[in-house]
Every structure is written in structure tokens, then in C-alpha cells.
Amino acid sequence: MNMELVVARAAAEAAGLAIRARWDQGIDVRHKGEIDLVSEADLVAESIIVERLRDAFPGDRVVAEEGGGHGDDSERVWYVDPLDGTTNFAHGFPQFAVSIGLADAEGLRAAVVHAPVYGWTFYAARGAGAWLDGRRLKRGRARDLDHALLATGFPYDSRTAVDNNVDRFGHLLRKCQGIRRAGSAALDLAFTAAGWLDGYWERKLQPWDLAAGCLLASEAGCTLTDFDGGPADFRSGAVVVSNGRIHVELLRALAEAGPTVRES
Questions:
Q1: Which end of the chain is more exposed for a tag (fewer CB within 10 A), N or C?
Q2: E-assigned strands of the chain?
Q3: How does residue 250 score in pLDDT terms, banded at 50, 70 and 90?
Q4: What is the CATH number of domain 145-256?
Q5: What is the pTM assigned to this prediction?
């Protein structure tokens, strides 16, 4: 691992220990939106990560979900989600992760996704592959949508939004082997990189939700695009990812469910 991955992995795992301790001891959460939560664990984990990144790479910018980042004019930007899946965490459901991704002028450079309860650390570096605790990750093997296991998620404004992914979910459910909605975009992407899922789509996300997972998937040989089949950009908040073999089918099925609504 290069120095960036060493620091990011250590930061993610240290944050994971703090999260796991609070998950074991009891959970204190508050609402930052109608159904969007933040916990003490989010804030503590973010502080741990930001401090370590600042100490190791003082010239880099850090963009963190809970606002604890720093710097504003570096081409190197760390995207930090200290607890992706806070709603799961708040209910005691173990599907949550720490996500740290580094981007530079050439694109995504380094990624770590750590699942504290499972004890898994996924990591990737540009051009060096994606890995899970020393095992190289490879994309899934499903050769058509009918035999594919997919994942997706729903936005926090799903109760009121016109474009809330419900139509796409219902349509794809009739075309694939199954769909999982487990509540962590970072882990959905990591699981697609590992070949445990064959595809994933979602909109209305934040860059810190997608940065690390998109590099994991790319380095594992997956195909990543936007909903129109163009180049994926993690900063856009929307992505379609697959093992490549089913990508055209997946895009077609998503389009059949109805056009993407551009809501103001």
C-alpha cells in the first residue's frame, strides 16, 4: 500500500473502533432532516479521520459529511463519510461503514471502505486494483440481468420527491434475480466490486457517499456510467455500476421505468 492508503486505512479503522464501541454501548442520535439522522458516532469518527488526514497531508483539502473538513484550494481532495448508513446504525442494524476517498486532478486516486461490525476493510489505489484484506477483488459473473443480484437505495426525500426510485425498483424487481436495499452506498459499491452484487444504481447521493466505492468498483473491473450511459462522475451524485456484462441491459431497464426527473 502507498502512504495515502496506509494513512486512510488506519484512520478508517480507528474511526471504526469508535463507532463499534458506541454501537455496543448504546446509540445517541438526532435528526438533521425529516428522516436523515446524525449520531455522536458520526461526529467522533469524523474528528478522528480529519485530524489524521490533516496531520499526514496538511496541504490537502478535506470534504467531510458533517462539516468537519478543512482547506479550500488544493487539487487533492479527500471525501469523508465517517458513518455511511447512520439510520442502520441507529436501529442497531450492522450494515454501515466508514468511507474515505481521495481525488486529484486525474480523478479518483485512493479509497478505503471499512465495515466496523464485519471487520472488513476494502481498499484500492488507482491502477493497482481493489482489495479486501489482502484478497484482490473481481467483478461478478452474471451474464444477463435475469441472473443478476442488484442493489439500490432511496433518497432522504423519498416521501415527497417525484423521482424517488420506487418506479425503477419495481420495474427492475421483475427483471433480475433479486434486489437488495441495505442502506449503505459505500458497502453496495464495495460488494459490487467484490462480485457479491452484479450491479447497483442510485441517485441523489453526495460525493462522500460515492468517491471511495466508485474507485473500488472501477479497480475491480466494473463498468461505471451515468444513467444515460455516459462517463460516471462521483461528484454528480448519480451512478450506475455493474459487472460490465449486464450493463447495457441494466441501463435499458432503468430507462424503461421512466425518464430521470430533474427536480429543482
A1: C
A2: 29-31, 37-39, 61-64, 77-84, 97-104, 107-115, 120-125, 130-132, 135-136, 149-152, 178-180, 199-202, 223-225, 239-242
A3: very high
A4: 3.40.190.80
A5: 0.93
